[in-house]
Amino acid sequence: MTFHFPSQFIWGSATAGHQVEGNNINTDFWAEEHAEGSPYKDKSGDTIDHYRLYKEDIALMASLGLKAYRFSIEWSRIEPEKGQYSYSEIEHYRNVLETCHEHGITPVVAMHHFSSPKWLMRLGGWASPEVPDLFAKYCEVVYKEIGHLIPYTLTMNEVNLPVMLREVFSNIGFIPPVGIERDAWTAPKWRESAAKLCGTTFDNYFTFHMISDENSIKILKSTHKKAREVIKRISPNTKVGFSMALSDIQSIPGGEELAEKKWQSYFGQFQDMITGDDFFGLQNYTRETYGPEGQVKPDEATELTQMGYVYCPEALGKVIRKVSQSVQIPIMITEHGVATVDDKRRVEFIRRSLEGVQSCLKDGIDLIGYLHWSTFDNFEWNSGYSMQFGLIEVDRTTQERKVKESGRLLGQIAQNSLVAR
C-alpha cells in the first residue's frame, strides 16, 4: 500500500538521556547499576556517548528524512544537588535544541524519563510531598532559559508504568524492566545498597518506578499539574502533555471484566491528569490477553520479541482508537517499537503498524505524530545492552553509527515517498 499522511504530521524517533548520553552519575539509576548485587546486566557507562556526539547524531537523523527528535533533559544534570542549578548543562541542552532547529528537526522534550537525582532519594523520593514543588522549580529554571526552543514537551514519561510493572510484568514469566522482582512488588536487597549510594536509607528510597499506591499517584498527578502550569506561564507557546504506556488489552470469553479492570488501572485512573493538557503522548509495544483466570500466556506458536512481548503491530491502531474515545485533545505517538535482532521484523512491524495509524487518520482521529522507539540501539535499563530497539546500530567500541533498513524506511515514509510492498 502507499502511505499518505498529512504534510504537517510529525515523524521522528526517540531516546532517553540515561540510555544514550553516558555517565549520568548523579541519578538513582546510576546508583542501582553500581549497587551490590545489582540485577543490571551491564553498567551504562559511556552508553553511546550521545552527550558528546549529539551534533553528528541529529545530522544523521535529518539525513534519513526524519523530522522530529524526542529526547529527555536530565534533571540530575540541571540540578545535581537540591537548589544548585548548572547553567553549563542548560547551555548543553540549548545547543542540542538549536542543532535540532538548524536541521529542520522538531524537538519533543521529556522533562523526566525515569531517572531522578540522587538527592531526591534523601528526601523520600517520589513519595515525598515536596516533589511537586521541586519538579516545578526545575522546570521553571529550564524554561526561563530555553523554553522558547521547545515546541512540545512531556512533563513525565510513562506515568502509569509503575502500576503496569506491579500488576502485569510480575506475572508473565520474565524479568520485568528496571529490576523489579517477578514474585513481589517489594524491592530486593540490592536496593538497600542503592539507597546507601544515594546517601540515604532503604526506608527513604522511593524511585519513580515505585509510584503505584494511592498516595504516590496523588503526588505524581500534582507534579504534572504544577509543572504544566509553570511551563505554560513561562513559555505559553509550548505544547504540554505527558505519556502513558498502553498495551492493547484484549479478552477471551470470561475475561471481559478483568480486561476492563486492567484498562481502568492502566489508563482510567490517570485520565483526570489530561485535563488542561495540549496533547496526549501514547506509547504502545504489544497486546495483553485476559481470561477468567487472569492474563493468558502466549502459546509456543506466538512470536515474541527480545523483551518477551507478543509481536503485534496491529496493537497500535487498536489502542489509538480506544484512547480516542476518551481523549479530546490531539494524540502523539511518542514511543512505538520492537526489540529484535532481525531488522526485517522491525521493518515489517513499522509497515503493519502504520497501516493502522493511517486508518485512524482516515477515520478522523486527531493524530499529530509518530515517534519510533528508538533512534539507536542503547542501554535498556536492567537488560543492559542485550536489547536491540534501534533504527541505527552502534558499535560501542568505536561509537560508529550504522543505519539499519528500518531507519531508511521510516525516513522515506517521513518524506511521503514510500510505496510499501
UniProtKB/TrEMBL annotation:
It is an enzyme of class 3 (hydrolase). Gene3D superfamilies: Glycosidases. InterPro entries: GH, Glyco_hydro_1. Pfam families: Glyco_hydro_1 (PF00232). Keywords: Glycosidase, Hydrolase. Transmembrane segments: none annotated. It comes from the Bacteria. Its EC number is 3.2.1.-. One of its GO terms (molecular function) is hydrolase activity, acting on glycosyl bonds. Belongs to the glycosyl hydrolase 1 family. This is Glycoside hydrolase family 1 protein. It comes from Metabacillus endolithicus. The lineage of its organism: Bacteria, Bacillati, Bacillota, Bacilli, Bacillales.
